[in-house]
Amino acid sequence: MMLFKKKKKQLSKGTSGNVNSKTRSNFYLSRQNTWLLWLCQCLNIAVVAMELSTWMLTIIALSLAWQALLLQQNSDRATTSRGKHPGTVQSNLANKRHSHGLSKQLTTNVSPVVLGIFALLGCVAIALTAKQVGILLSMVHLLCFSYALKGFELRTRRDFYQLLLLGLFILASALIFRQDLAFSLIIFSLLILNLTVLLQFFSSEKAFATNLKVVVVLLGQSALLAMVLFLVFPRLSPFWQVPFAKSAETGLSDTVKPGDIANLTRSTKLAFRADFGTQKVPDYAQLYWRAIVLENYDGRQWRRQNKVTTNNTAARSIIFDASNTEVLPLTYQVFVEASFQKYLFALAPAVVTGNTSGITAQTDYTIQSSTIISQAKSYRLTSYLTAPLALELSPQSRQINLSYPQGSNPRLEQLALQLQHNYVDVQARAQAVLTLINQQNYSYTLQPPLLINNSLDQFFFDSQAGFCVHYASAFTFLMRASGIPARLVTGYLGGEYNGVTAEVNSAGKIVNKGHLSIYQYDAHAWSEIWVAGKGWLRIDPTGAVDPQRVNIGWSNQLLQEQAELNNSFFSLYRMKNITWLNTLRLQFDALDYQWTRWVIGFTSQQQYDLLKHWFGKMVPWKLALIIAVTLVLSMLMLMLLLHWLNRPKVKKQTFAQWQIIYHKAIDRLAKQGIEKPLAMTVNDFAKKIRQQCPELAIVFTRLSASYNRLCYQTLSISEQEKQAVTMQQQYHHFIQVLKNSDKKHL
Amino acid sequence: MAITSFSLVKPLRRFLDENFERWLAHRLPSRREHQLNSRNIMIYPTRFGLTYVGFVVLVFLLGTNYQNNIILLFSYLLASLFISVMLHSFYNFSQLRFYSRAKQQGYADATLYYAIKITAKKTHYDINAHFSDVSLNSPIVNMGQCKQGTQELILAYKPSKRGQYKLGRVTVFSEYSLGLFKSKAMLDFGHYAIIYPKAKSLIAGQYQLSGQVDEPNRESYQTMNSVGSDDFLELKSFVRGESKARTAWKQLAKGQGHYSKHYQTSQGQLTWLKLSDMPSNDLEIQLAYLSFLIGELTAAKQSFGLALSSDMANKSMNIPPNSGFEHQQACLTALALY
């Protein structure tokens, strides 16, 4: 709504021409500032460029280029006219005016009518595509479009302000789509740049760098108050429903074909992080992060079993009963990045601990979020790693996990029958397949050859090169065909341990052992077979072909392959091989983790807990009081800080010891009722003392003489010191005499 | 209904304005020199500042609705920026000293310049000044950067009619650092202007100066006797320091002693500029002629008096004959105030 209003305003202004001739005549942007503003426009739009459609980007790029052209012509003319009267400041000023006139003329070259029609057309186009891209994105389109067009009519100061605020709003809305530390830092630096352009308008005489510094100082001073607000200002629940972005889903998907996950592994994007606190991080080979269980196979791809809706919630909540197991629990916190999907990650079997709202455990030991994860989210889990999964298998489930399209992979089916005949024991049969894979010439690669119709036969007997899904699929198929209930599971394997976040508290106790970062390239697929009395057993055929992948992580060969595929300079392979770069990467990852944990993940619950921790039990009036007091306090601190920074700089006179002594003596005398007028010389005052208090005469005269000597005679440093010591003694003498005379008087 | 409410608003507004004026007069009395401090600086958000607050609220709503902590943090940062800009705005403006002379005089339709000396202890930015009274139509003078030391701002005022004008206060303001706040001070230097009637030249022969009644008419006032003309008066004994040109050489040669010749100025031919003698029926035009004549006579170093009242005995309205710059000023002032 707001945007539409703005747009309307802009249009009406375009046609009505001048609004306020007074402000118009006042408005002048320096050349440097105009270009900076243009740069700001480009950068601000670049931040959301990922979300814009191509046609919109083209239009924006064209209009920005056009603006640049106009500016260039403008400055060319200005320089030619400047050439005519070189020198004095006055002519320079005249030139400013002159070029200003030119700019006016040039900007009006783009007739408001044309601009209006253009804007209208753009709005119509946005409205037409709104259905396709969603409301949120069409709003962003509109915002960027008006921002780009606004640059054409920079006539008054008001236009300038509007342009700047629009730019800031674009920066804010860019944060809807990404919130990680790197992106936030980019947004923050752009905020600085935008504000510098504004500041430059008010102090154009200052250098750009100085203005930049001023803005940084301003923001630095504001940071304190902002932090306090962030900590204590209550988190409100949404006021109304807002459209969410229909962003591309990242990560795993509901259907898996052989070769799918190999594509995913090119991405070095973060999937999630796990923090085990003070507990030992489990071995790499145990870190099977379960996400999706795929039970339906149609001969080409694996699909998730559509949940039977009759499942009542009561049954669902006790999918895994932790009280029956004696396995040691492992509690950890998971921080998921936005994936725009619903599935979450867990080390099965797991129980959701802590705040369970919005998270449900599924019967297949996966957990899911009730809403699409559109921004970073965290949850707490307790896993019992070695506990068995589902000791009982329902007939329905058994049937699903045994079915396969007959005749889809005849050679594998034949092999399965052979295996069934040779190995009666279920586990031995599975082991036989693994041995087969291990001993024959199978290879593990990111670039498997394409399979016709995703034929598993072709993979298993002909190409014999594939990635995890190939092996897991073929293995599961073999198992099903040989009569063992089996299913495919996708998720992530392992994770990168980052010890930078490890903390040791003051008592020498380990508070945190660091965290695991799991990236998209850790995506993995494995299979599960059901064995009577043992439940679902995890079998990872990848371990048979590439044991390193399962036990330590990516082999160098895989990393190299990935680097070739990605063709980027900052590939993971390069990063991991250059030590300092890798350390830097880990440091940044640790920072980003803390950012995710404490800033992005700072929920109202955490806020409440924090305040409770600091101030005890929370009651509404107390909360209000805390907010008010902290706000006032931080504002006061800010004011004091600024007051202190801006205090008039008076050079404090430093007094030597002997000067202080003399003044002390005078103060003592003043207490006695004998004051030294400022204009009176030291000698005259001594004379006065001699007349008024004869008993002090000798001591005070000596003191005065020493003072005069130190003041006016040129003495070497050693002489000065000597004299100062003498003066000190004289002062003590003086005090004694003074006290004695006091006693006498009493 | 609308009309009545409008008429109700007006007196209220006048009442508020008057009260504000009284309060200002009490708080910021007229002085030649002012130093900006928390007593006299008013600081309030500009329109842009208010829009900015609205914008921050908008960003806050965005953050709340999307439950997005980073957007919330962004809005908090912008909100705190508002506060720190206010303080910066204040400190940029305070501690400036202003000094200006109160009185300026000049002819109607000529521009008067009021110089305001600004003394700064550090560099201040974006200092603007104009007369608070909008009806004076004085342009806003801008000083982009006010460096440490003393600078001068010049306010222009172009009156069109003669008379004495109180120019009221001078508004000094600054929108540094981000235009969110306007720091403003309304300083009263007691500025006033005395505007002489614009000189209107008299065609030769149109008017004769009225000297003493018995004085013969002349062709034009330009041929009037000038001060110290050559009518010989007497000889006085020479006083050291007197010009040798005046020495009575004849007497000295005769051995009668050293005398110097003294001449009679046109004492007897006192000239009076009379308002009633001006050849027009329009008072303003008559005054304009007088203004012209005063200028001419002063330029010619001629002594003259100004009679604005036909009653020559009226001391308050008439200025006795004299000459010189001060006399000219006095006469012109009398014209301005008539």
Keywords, please?
heterodimer; A: 746 residues; alpha+beta; 7-stranded antiparallel β-sheet; 6-stranded antiparallel β-sheet; 56% helix; 12% strand; elongated; disordered N terminus; B: 338 residues; Immunoglobulin-like; 2 domains; 6-stranded mixed β-sheet; 4-stranded antiparallel β-sheet; 15 strands
As residue ranges, the low-confidence spans of chain A are 1-25, 82-108, 309-317
In the CATH scheme, the class of the largest domain in chain B would be Mainly Beta
Major β-sheet of chain B, in short? 6 strands, mixed
**Rg of chain A (C-alpha, Å):** 39 Å
Helix content of chain B: 25-40%
Number of strands of chain A: 19
Oligomer: heterodimer
Q: What value does the Rg of chain B take, in angstroms?
A: 32 Å
Nearest-integer average pLDDT of chain B:
79
Tally of contiguous helical segments of chain B = 6
| End-to-end CA span of chain A | 89 Å
Q: How many domains comprise the coordinates of chain B? A: 2
Mean pLDDT of chain A: 82
Task: Explain how this protein is built.
The complex is a heterodimer of chains A (746) and B (338). Chain A is an alpha+beta fold and 746 residues long. Among the domains of chain A are: 2-205, no CATH class; 657-745, no CATH class. In chain A, strands 1, 3, 4, 6, 13, 18 and 19 form a 7-stranded antiparallel beta sheet that branches. In chain A, a hairpin with a 5-residue loop joins strand 15 (503-504) and strand 16. In chain A, helix 3 (31-48) runs parallel beside helix 8 (157-177). The longest helix of chain A has 31 residues, at 54-84. The termini of chain A are far apart. Helix content of chain B is 31%, strand content 30%. Chain B contains 6 helices and 15 strands. Chain B has helices at 2-27, 47-65, 69-93, 249-253, 283-299, 325-337, and strands at residues 33-35, 42-45, 97-100, 103-107, 112-120, 124-131, 141-146, 149-157, 163-174, 181-196, 231-237, 259-264, 272-274, 304-307, 318-322. In chain B, strand 13 (272-274), helix 5 and strand 14 (304-307) form a beta-alpha-beta unit. At the A-B interface, helix 8, helix 9, helix 10 and helix 24 of A face helix 2 and helix 3 of B.
